[in-house]
C-alpha cells in the first residue's frame, strides 16, 4: 500500500503505450489428506453384489483436515457454452463499448467509441441476439472511453465519451429512439483524457462524471448542470498514469468513491468521496503489470465491494477483496490463459448465483473465470472473438436471462456477439 503522489519521468511514452499495444462451477474440491487410505474396490465382484447394488464403502473414522481455500477452482467441464461468434461492422478502431437500452423498447443495444474514425457507432438490438446496422454520430478526436447515462434528466439515455486528443468530455443527448443530438463538449482539466465513469458525486440529483487524465496524474470530477453540460473540472492527484476508472461506495457511507488504475507504479488507486463532489487523498494498492481496466462487484457476498483489475502485460486479473472503511486486501492474481487482457467485467455466466470474471484479450478471445462465491476463481475457459478486442460488456441480448458477451475489436473494426448457452 502506498500513500501520496508518485511521479515518474516519461509521460509521452506512457500515454502512447495504450494506443500501440497489440491490442464452469462444481463445489470446491476439498483438499484430501495425503495419508488418508483409499478403499480398494478391485476385490469387489459381480457375484458378491446384488443386482443394481452399490458397494458399501467404509471410509476410515478419521477427521478431515482443516479446509483451505485453493488457489483455483475447477469448472465442471470445458464444453464450449457460448455460441459461435457473430460480428458486425463498426467504425475504424472501435475501442470501447457500452450496453444499454438506447431506444426504450426493452431490448439491449450497443454503443461503441471508434478511436480512429472519431465517431460513435450505435447498434440497436432485436431482442433475439442480433444487432441492426450501425448508425454513426460524430464526436471529438480519438474517443477512447464511453458511458451511457441520463445527463439532462429527461429519462432518456445519453452517451458521453472522452476525446483523448481534445482533452474533453463529449455528451450526445439522446432522443429516446436510438438517435442522438450533436456533441456538447467540456474540458477535462488534464492531459490525455482516458477513463470515464458517471455518477452523482454531490447528491444533487444530476449526473456527474469522473475522468482519468493519463498524462497529468489526476482524475477530474465534472459536476453536471443537468442539461448535458458540466462545471469546470476539479482535479485530484493520483499516482502516475491514471487510465481506467470506476465508481462505487467502497466505505458504505452513502457517498460515491473512485478506483483508478495507475500505469506508473502498476497500482489501483482508491479515492474516497465526501458527498460534496470532492475526493480524499488516494491510497494505492499493488496489482500486476500494466493495469488496463478495473471493475467493481461484491464477489464474496460479504456486502462490501471488491475490485478486479485486468493486467495487460501481466496476462492476469488481480482480485482485491474489500474491507471496512474502504480499504482493500492484497491482490490475488488469476492467469487468464491468454495474452494481453485489455478489459474485465463481472457477470454470472453460468447462472449459479455467484459472480464470474470475463476478460477480453489481445490474442483474439475472451476468458471466463468462474467464481466460487467466496472470492476465488477457476482456471480460464477461452472463447474466440474478432481481432484485438479492447473492450467488452455483458448483458442479455436475446431475452433468455443469461449474460451474453459483446466485444469491441480494434483491429477487425467490428463488434462480436457471443450468445450464452450455459
Structure described in brief:
The protein has 422 residues and is mainly beta. It is 2% helix and 38% strand.
List keywords for this structure.
mainly beta, five-stranded antiparallel sheet, four-stranded antiparallel sheet, 1 helix, 29 strands, globular
Sequence-ordered SSE layout with sheet pairings:
Elements: E1 2-3, H1 11-20, E2 86-89, E3 94-100, E4 109-114, E5 119-123, E6 135-138, E7 143-149, E8 158-163, E9 168-172, E10 184-187, E11 193-199, E12 208-213, E13 218-222, E14 234-237, E15 242-248, E16 257-262, E17 267-271, E18 283-286, E19 291-297, E20 306-311, E21 316-320, E22 332-335, E23 341-347, E24 356-361, E25 365-371, E26 377-384, E27 389-395, E28 404-409, E29 414-418
Antiparallel strand pairs: 1-18, 2-29, 3-4, 4-5, 5-6, 7-8, 8-9, 9-10, 11-12, 12-13, 13-14, 15-16, 16-17, 17-18, 19-20, 20-21, 21-22, 23-24, 24-25, 25-26, 27-28, 28-29
What is the structural class? mainly beta
Q: Poorly predicted ranges (pLDDT <50, ≥5 residues)?
A: 1-70
Mean pLDDT: 87
Order of adjacent strands in the largest pleated sheet:
1-18-17-16-15
Helical stretch tally: 1
Distance from first to last alpha carbon: 39 Å
Percentage of residues in DSSP E strands: 35-45%
Tell me how many strands there are: 29
The string of secondary-structure elements, in order, is EHEEEEEEEEEEEEEEEEEEEEEEEEEEEE
**Share of helix, binned:** under 10%
Oligomer designation: single chain
Taking all Cα atoms into account, the compactness measure Rg is 23 Å
Main beta sheet, described? 5 strands, antiparallel
Shape call: globular
